[in-house]
Design a protein that fits this description.
Layout lengths: L1 E3 L21 E7 L5 E8 L5 E7 L7 E7 L5 E7 L5 E8 L5 E7 L8 E7 L5 E7 L5 E8 L5 E8 L5 E8 L5 E7 L5 E8 L5 E7 L8 E7 L5 E7 L5 E8 L5 E7 L8 E7 L5 E7 L5 E8 L5 E9 L4 E9 L5 E6 L7 E10 L5 E9 L4 E8 L9 E7 L4 E4 L3 E10 L5 E10 L5 E13 L4 E9 L7 E11 L3 E13 L13 E2 L15 E2 L10 E8 L3 E8 L5 E10 L2 E8 L6 E9 L2 E9 L2
Parallel strand pairs: 31-37
Antiparallel strand pairs: 1-26, 2-29, 3-4, 4-5, 5-6, 7-8, 8-9, 9-10, 11-12, 12-13, 13-14, 15-16, 16-17, 17-18, 19-20, 20-21, 21-22, 23-24, 24-25, 25-26, 27-28, 28-29, 30-32, 32-35, 33-34, 33-36, 35-38, 36-37, 39-40, 40-43, 41-42, 41-44, 44-45
Length: 615
């Protein structure tokens, strides 16, 4: 593995560190496939800590099938499956859905009404087929990215060939069963393609790709914003007088967007990786190009935990007339920190990356192709060392009171946040909290604690209470606290997972995502005024239910479940707990149907309520 590491001064940042000796070290390299050709286009981290990868395979059907691979955190195969018909079917995108299954999108010639059609396949958590749909008419359509939406349905971005032989961006919205709700296409008189779509906090969507009809060059990066019904709100183009396009887009922590692809107007020559940053209205903020004198394209971009960006793609190897892996790591302003140019490819081998994910240990996992000329190709899944997270001047940690956190809509949960000054000098920092939802929707900041002062080596803690919106989308969230200079500089972050389940409307939930509590001395959190045991939800229930209670003071707490005969069947809590709003999930899968009593004892307070388990 050849490595070029570029260290840059992060102007205005408090985070300064020495990079790892070799962030491009390959920790493992996994290949998946058979005797045919396999190529991976999409990679997602899964809730169990592993990865899901999607692309296509010609091993069983020479014309090609959807091919999906599930691995553990070390890239070891858990299961793989192929989906499709007797003709060509290519998967371009995969995402884990809120109930733990997977949605896969691409294109098909096996089904539908035309040459190629958009193809959507739903499978369960272990890859068992559930349903499929094809979308399109008598011309050709293709899907490049799918996202589950806040209503439980799906949005697919791609392209449609028109009768005039021009091409438009193509957007398909479905319900949770894949039935079509609406279809839109956008473009001018030439070629437009949509490679990425993301749902925005207002329920609408951004769609990114390229345009030949608008802008300054032959092709330009094209970003459009539509409302929840697919009606155009605004469109923007970015680029120079030559060729640009975007293959990937993400919503960033500041509410803006970052787009990645290629440029031939800027950079060092040939085509270079291209990164564009905008605000929430699509207004241009900055652009960067990365690469050498040949060809480099970015197929994926992800915002990293330090506020920077990771781009994955490929570079052309002129000596071999082949491609090789190319990774680029930047700071939050797009300045190059380091790049990895692989040496895996030999004279008869071509490798490239199409997607990348940050790993919890500071490394990166990327997926793509590993092809030997004249023989076959395989999915490749690669783990790069990256850089161990540096020790920031100020660090933050959040720890939930009752992990794992399961909270109903309109409910609340509590946690402790701790800021630590890791230096011998006084520090001033902001701290703010956000969440990334099950649909990659970004929520927050729920609160920004500004200009917090920390003495040398001082740690400061706060007990915080998070109210959940009555209409929060169901599913898993990554709940994240940041410290630094809001919103431009992230020094450190800490997170835990929460699951939002269906719940009754509450008065507190009407106010939305409200965070109470403070890091300031003497500024007490919004604590309950009295002890309370709340009604479980749902009730009646099947398999599991959430029991919530309130503690106005630190107490010795016991929460037990008894059957109708008075026999204890479960102890859910037994120990001292700090004041706050508490929730605990009872998994009743091992007991029979019937009426149960749950009893809370906290100091001198005791209360009993009933609940009903139905099978």
């Amino acid at each position: 593995m050849r490595i070029s590491v570029f260290f840059a001064l992060l102007l205005g940042l408090l985070l300064v560190s020495t990079a790892a000796a070799d962030p491009c070290d390959t920790l493992w390299w996994r290949l998946f496939g058979g005797s045919g050709y396999e190529e991976a286009y999409s990679l997602e981290a899964t809730l169990d800590g592993g990865y899901i990868v999607a692309g296509y395979s010609t091993t069983v059907d020479p014309s090609g099938d959807f091919y999906v691979v599930k691995t553990d955190a070390e890239g070891n195969l858990l299961w793989d499956n192929k989906y499709g018909g007797s003709n060509s079917d290519v998967a371009r995108s995969v995402q884990q859905t809120s109930e733990g299954g997977y949605i896969i999108a691409g294109q098909t010639r096996s089904y539908g009404g035309g040459n190629d059609d958009v193809y959507l396949v739903k499978v369960d958590s272990v890859g068992n087929f559930e349903w499929d749909h094809a979308y399109g008419g008598t011309v050709s359509e293709a899907g490049f990215l799918v996202q589950q939406t806040s209503d439980g349905g799906y949005i697919i971005a791609g392209l449609i060939w028109l009768e005039s032989q021009n091409m438009d961006m193509y957007l398909v919205k479905t319900d949770a069963s894949g039935d079509t709700l609406w279809v839109r296409n956008f473009g001018g008189g030439l070629w437009e393609k949509a490679y990425a779509v993301r749902q925005t906090s207002d329920g609408g969507y951004i769609v990114a790709g390229f345009t030949g009809s608008f802008g300054a060059g032959a092709y330009d990066v094209y970003l459009i914003k539509v409302d929840a019904d697919g009606n155009l709100i605004w469109d923007r183009t970015y680029g120079g007088t030559s060729y640009e396009g975007a293959y990937a887009a993400q919503i960033t922590s500041d509410g803006g967007y970052v787009l990645a692809g290629w440029t031939s107007s800027f950079g060092s020559g040939g085509d270079d990786m291209y990164l564009v940053k905008t605000d929430a209205d699509g207004n241009f903020l900055w652009q960067r190009a990365y690469g050498g004198t040949d060809i480099e394209w970015a197929q994926s971009v992800r915002q990293t935990s330090d506020g920077g960006y990771m781009l994955a793609g490929w570079t052309y190897v002129e000596d071999y007339d082949q491609t090789n892996t190319y990774l680029v790591k930047t700071d939050s302003d797009g300045n190059l920190l380091w790049e990895c140019i692989g040496q895996e490819a030999g004279p008869e081998e071509s490798v490239g990356l199409f997607d990348v994910q940050e790993a919890p240990d500071g490394g990166y996992v990327a997926a793509g192709k590993d092809y030997v000329r004249g023989e076959n190709g395989d999915f490749c899944l690669v783990k790069y060392a990256g850089e161990p997270p540096p020790l920031p001047d100020v660090s933050i940690e959040i720890v939930p009171d009752d992990p794992p956190v399961t909270v109903p809509q309109g409910g609340r949960f509590s946690y402790t946040g701790t800021l630590t000054n890791n230096t011998e000098d006084p520090q001033i920092t902001d701290a703010w909290v956000m969440a990334v939802g099950p649909l990659e929707g970004v929520y927050g900041p729920f609160r920004n604690f500004q200009d917090l002062q920390l003495g040398p080596s001082q740690a400061r803690s706060a007990h915080l209470n998070q109210q959940v919106h009555n209409w929060a989308p169901l599913g898993f969230y990554n709940y994240i606290a940041y410290c630094g200079d809001y919103p431009s500089t992230v020094m450190d972050s800490s997170s835990f997972q929460i699951e939002v389940i269906a719940g009754p409307l509450t008065k507190a939930g009407e106010a939305g995502w409200v965070l109470t509590g403070s890091f300031l001395e003497g500024d007490l959190a919004d604590l309950p005024s009295e002890f309370a045991l709340l009604s479980n939800y749902p009730n009646p229930f099947n398999a599991s239910t959430v029991i919530s209670y309130e503690l106005p003071a630190t107490s010795q707490v016991k929460l037990e479940v008894h059957n109708i005969s008075g026999q204890k069947v479960a102890t859910l809590v037994d120990g001292e707990q700090e004041a706050g709003y508490r929730s605990v999930n009872w998994d009743a899968s091992e007991v029979s149907s019937g009426v149960y009593f749950y009893k809370l004892t906290a100091g001198d307070y005791t209360e009993i309520k009933t609940m009903t388990l139905l099978r």
